Inverse folding.
């Protein structure tokens, strides 16, 4: 995760982020003035001890920044990155579909192996129709989900193809 992706994610969700910031500042200022009122025992006057007022406002602003704004900004950025992973996985599926269609047009009788198109633990030979329908199924149903522990999009695509072939086999039985 780099800062450019985080900034793009925040740009997409800028209005909710600004609402959170405005609410945080408004809420912290209310708390600060209520504290100043408590310290002063009178409403509308500045506290006699400005050092106490500035320390309290600094602590409350830091609290709001750390516990309200940063978690929400991180959540927005993470959602953006998850959406980008799904888009990239679907682009990979489009390329894979084109490769399979080209191979099918050259030699439609020869069965394909998933290992021709996937880079991880390819299973035994499947028919061309199974592999192609698995890819189309993945694109239609969006079985490809970003894995929190793995950033490898090819691995995600492979897992999706295997899962889709298993679903099809169980459905046909």
């Amino acid at each position: 995760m780099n800062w450019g992706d985080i900034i793009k994610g925040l740009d997409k969700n800028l209005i909710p982020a600004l609402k959170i910031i405005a609410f945080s500042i408004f809420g912290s200022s209310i708390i600060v003035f209520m504290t100043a009122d408590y310290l002063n025992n009178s409403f509308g006057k500045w506290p006699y001890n400005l050092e106490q007022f500035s320390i309290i406002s600094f602590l409350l602003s830091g609290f709001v920044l750390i516990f309200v704004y940063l978690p929400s900004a991180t959540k927005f950025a993470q959602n953006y990155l998850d959406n980008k992973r799904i888009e990239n996985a679907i682009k990979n599926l489009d390329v894979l579909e084109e490769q399979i269609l080209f191979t099918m047009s050259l030699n439609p009788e020869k069965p394909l192996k998933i290992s021709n198109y996937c880079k991880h633990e390819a299973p035994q030979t499947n028919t061309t129709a199974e592999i192609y329908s698995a890819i189309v199924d993945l694109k239609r149903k969006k079985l490809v989900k970003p894995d929190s522990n793995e950033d490898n999009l090819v691995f995600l695509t492979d897992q999706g193809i295997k899962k889709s072939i298993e679903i099809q086999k169980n459905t046909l039985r």
Summary: Residues 3-81 form one domain. The chain has two domains: 3-81, 83-172. Confidence is low (pLDDT under 50) at residues 119-124, 150-156.
